[in-house]
Amino acid sequence: MFSRSDPEGAIAAAAKRCSNWGRWGADDVRGTMNFLTPDKRREAASLVRRGVSFSLAQSFDANGPQKGWRRRTNPVHTMLDTGTDAAAGIQGFPHGLGGADDVIAMPLQCSTQWDGLGHIFDHGMAWNGRPAGEVVTSLGDARTGIETVADVIAGRGVLLDFGDLPDGFAITADHLRERIHAHGLTVGTGDIVLVRTGQLARARRDGWGDYAGGPAPGLSFGTADWLHATEIAAIATDTWGFEVRPNEFDDAFQPLHQVAIPHIGLFLGEMWDLDALAADCAADGVYEFWLTAAPLPITGAVGSPVNPIAVK
Description:
Number of helices: 9
Oligomer: single chain
CATH topology of the largest domain: Glucose Oxidase, domain 1
Strand content: 15-25%
Distance between the termini: 38 Å
Radius of gyration: 20 Å
Order of helices and strands: HHEEHEEEEHEEEEHEHEHEHEHEEE
CATH class of the largest domain: Alpha Beta
Helix content: 10-25%
């Protein structure tokens, strides 16, 4: 248990209990992705039976959830060359050739995305005990940039579907274990766990509202020990911030992030669209699948957009 009035003490205690610093050597940059081995990936490939695939990404467009917090905006898509230009003959190509090109400007964590290991620090320390100022500078993350895991995030995915939870609902380790049992699953080393709370489905129905940064169901701070002990490679949710909001302390901001990323070395996915996958899992009773979710290898980035694909 932890005290609502002592987030500093609770975070420090959980960080000490759940630390993976040095587990894979002083130079490690992949954290819990070390659990997702070639053997685990080969086993996961056998989960493809029907060949049915699902994109787990939200749309990347101006109608997204962002409201400008910490300068996070929705994507801005602009055409550089168009069919109109081609028809007007102003593109300069010979023999009737025409084309279209476009550009997009966006924060890397404005829609479906991964949090990299350089995204969150604890008292000035980054993953594996490195000083944050030596890891992430104005040039980017020189040690744990998201490109370091661009080739490894593919393996066994499992879905824990909680239906439609109310905002502020804290998902405990017992809740996770109950869902695992209810779905006939095991969860362990190297798995990528997806948690559906139903919040994205509500936002689609009722409007974005405070989806980005407001109250939300999510993981309880008390799940830090479960996240560490299960040796999962990553976890993702259909919410903006992964953990329950408001959180369980009187004065704290994203306390579970503060343990999970810099101490456990865990990769967190946020704003994943799990609705179609959940419907299929409910229909056939199978909640495990092959999952590939490679980030864009943006050198030095502390997060990345992703189009995860689940295949059953």
